[in-house]
Amino acid sequence: MHVLIVKTSSLGDIVHTLPAVTEAACALPQLRFDWVAEEAFAEIPAWHPAVQRVIPVALRRWRRQPLAARRSGEWGHFREQLAAQRYDLVIDGQGLLKSAFIARKVAAPVAGYDWASAREPLASLFYQRKYTVARDQHAVLRLRRLFAEALSYRLCEEAVDCGLTRSAFARPAPVGDSPYVVFLHGTTREDKHYPEAYWRELVEQAADCYRVLLPWGNKIERERALRLARGVENAAVLPKMNLAEIAGTIAGAEGAVAVDTGLGHLSAALGTPAVSLYGPTSPRLVGAYGANQRYLCAEDFPPGDADVKPAIFSGLTPARVWDELQAAIQEAR
């Protein structure tokens, strides 16, 4: 049976789909998967051994430049890639109108969430097979239930991993060989950022025990990383890396600290001991999923005295984060 998965973005959403693929492949060994993913994240599905082919799509870019996309022939090429393989089933794991639009371009039945379960209920009108999956549960479990319903197998009672092996990812040369921790400080929403003054304290504290590596994905993140590392002998700002190189860096780390960000989900998928920091968001439905993970939620701590922004993190001090990271690293050994 050949199945096409439509789960285009974001990084965390794609990572959350991997356990469902692991479980489906275990339940149905003859199953083969292809996957439609946004071009920025297309590396990730290919890391899973059950995924044969990834079809990149550029909906985000095409929406910004529709005429250019049409003239370039990219949309036509994408349609050709969808038509190049006969599929027995398409699973829309996203439940959005944009993903349903893609799924219906394939000459195969489409399975997805029903009206009450989809993130955008109108998307369910485009599916031939619709399944009720309660929304008040973690995204990983929702996707596992959807795949199990669509492919007719029983959910496994044990924990299911993401199908990624840390040892499969090469450590990039700039990382070096001495023990290190990775601080994943970048996120898209301003109110999810851990205060920079707290990051700086955490860097200084961690640098007494490990090298501290700071990746970045854009100019703003690079400038922040440079400020955090400035004057700290054992801290380093990494060069620009692709996702595979970042994964190799995270996989080789003793531990990681992350805000609510896609790379935090990647760290969890790799099983790297990590502490994820949540301010205005909650890990209950979309938290980092994987082995050796710990959550610290700002709402669980009384407000601190420090004048930091976002103020919600004031009680989540660097000392608390460092103690939690040390415990996570020790427990994983």
The count of strands amounts to: 12
Report the radius of gyration as a whole number of Å: 21 Å
Low-confidence stretches: none
What proportion strand?
Answer: 15-25%
- Give the CA-based shape: globular
Mean pLDDT across the residues is: 97
- The helical percent reads 25-40%
Reported CATH architecture of the largest domain: 3-Layer(aba) Sandwich
| Strands side by side in the biggest sheet | 3-2-1-4-5-6
Structural class: alpha/beta
CATH topology of the largest domain: Rossmann fold
EC number: 2.4.99.23
Keywords: Cell inner membrane, Cell membrane, Glycosyltransferase, Lipopolysaccharide biosynthesis, Membrane, Transferase
Pathway: Bacterial outer membrane biogenesis; LPS core biosynthesis
Main location: membrane
Describe this structure in words.
The strands form two sheets. This protein has a six-stranded parallel beta sheet with strand order 3-2-1-4-5-6, with helices on both faces. A six-stranded parallel beta sheet has the order 9-8-7-10-11-12, sandwiched between helices. The two termini are 40 Å apart. 43% of the residues are buried. With 333 residues, the chain is an alpha/beta fold. It has helices at residues 11-27, 43-46, 59-64, 66-72, 74-83, 97-103, 139-151, 196-206, 219-229, 243-251, 262-270, 283-286, 318-332; strands at residues 2-6, 32-38, 51-57, 89-92, 110-113, 129-131, 180-184, 211-214, 235-237, 255-259, 274-278, 293-297. The mean pLDDT is 97. The protein folds into two domains: 2-151, Glycogen Phosphorylase B (Rossmann fold, 3-Layer(aba) Sandwich), CATH 3.40.50.2000; 167-332, 3-Layer(aba) Sandwich (Rossmann fold), CATH 3.40.50.2000. One of its GO terms (biological process) is lipopolysaccharide core region biosynthetic process. It is a peripheral membrane protein. It is found in: Cell inner membrane. Pathway: Bacterial outer membrane biogenesis; LPS core biosynthesis.
